[in-house]
Amino acid sequence: MILLVFSPKSLILLAFYQKAKQSKVKFAQNFKFQGVNVSKAYLKSPIGILQIIASENGICEINFVDKFEKVAVKDENLKLCLDELEAYFKGELKKFNVRLDIKTTKFRAKIYDVLQKVPYGETTTYAALALAAGHKNAYRAVGSANAKNPLPIIVPCHRVLSHSGFGGYSGGEGLPTKIWLLEHEAKHK
Fold it and tell me: Could you tell me the pTM of the whole model?
């Protein structure tokens, strides 16, 4: 059970997000990034416009952006990612199956691996995540890894709380986005 405490400001922001329209639009654009062929697609979600970047090996990044671009999607894994994100936002998907291609350090890779094991609708703390990853005193480094998570939502860094509250969130509008995601999962658990 998650107990959420809201200030009037966060309630106003949550109301804004809840009114945002969802759209099943599958568009992508191919380009090169650091010498690798990648594709990108956009999805209008309740927490803003998401830009999804994929290589031939899997999904590399999910970014919160201001502008939606229409381009055709050819990559099957990128199409699957769009479908899965849409199902997640409808409350129909609890676990992602899309292939990932995360370029990161060994430490962060371990954190992201453990993080994907935190069940839908549940939370953990930075300290517990550090312990589960085999680095019991590295809770600040875990917080830093979460802040640099290239795949928010799929690698559910929003499920990690500080020992004294929500902690932070670097995606979208920050903490209101984290609260929206936690509330969404609690509602559809």
Answer: 0.80
